[in-house]
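Mods, move this if it's the wrong board.
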Amino acid sequence: MTFSQDHLKVGTNIPTVRKTGATHRGGKLVTPDDWARQLSAQPDLSSDGQLWPGALIRHWTGTSPDIDQPPLDHHYIVQHLGGTKRVDRWHDGPPISTIVQPGALTVVPAGTQFTWRTRGPIEFAHLYISPAYLQRLALRYDWRSRWALIDRVGVEDPMLQAMYTTMLREVRMPRAAHALYLDCLLDAFVMQLLREHSSTTPRSDRPGERLTSFRVGRVIEFVNAHIDHEIHLNDLADVAGESVYHFCRAFKNTVGEAPYQFVLRRRIERAHSLLLSTTLSLTEVARTCGFRSPQQLSRAFRRMMGVTPARLRRDI
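Not the wrong board. Structure tokens:
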């Protein structure tokens, strides 16, 4: 999937930022793909464009320490890696210097334009998020309709940093994690980003939300019928007739576990049954239960059941 401005027409929200950076409103904005082609090195990791609609994660090492960043049509969040460094950033004025610790984050709103200079290890990741996606998620999660990301350099947010690191790890694996897990991870990242690094405030929650038994039954039926396929958070929310945010809260209040945990447990339970009652190979069991590889099944099975699939069969 190539990111283009056509993908962003609905709900685009280009925020006004502080005077340290200009907001580009009149001219053409640049896509992440176009900017990547302008950099002095290609990314050594890039997520599949189909992984997240409206989001993309990439990792670089060894680029030039001096980077001219054009006004982008995506917000992007940098994770600074490789060691402590000094980052200078400027636009139409003297540079602002920041000592940045390993793993720290920089938030760059869409439409802003800067020049960057790094003195120290050159390793970083970019998570691009389209304004349309962020706006839809903000509305879906009942955040105020008017908001803007706050541009920050070298900020330390342990929760965001941990989720960022996890996303990089999962994307780097030969076979990425289940789509539902990655959906939940990105949603949680964006929710924390909005909560701590934007001008918005959440509307009051409705504690104690629950799903009716009919809606829970529909979700369970859907999961059982599609256990061998990728299952996305939107799929489950649609079946339940809820927004994603309300669904996640109500489902956990009703069932006692988050949607991802529930689906994973169902997959493991199905695998357990097949391992005991059939002679299917581990590869066939993994495929039938929606795992991308027997290795992924084995890891998840051992964490939940305390034994590997192979050991379970040997002990029958």
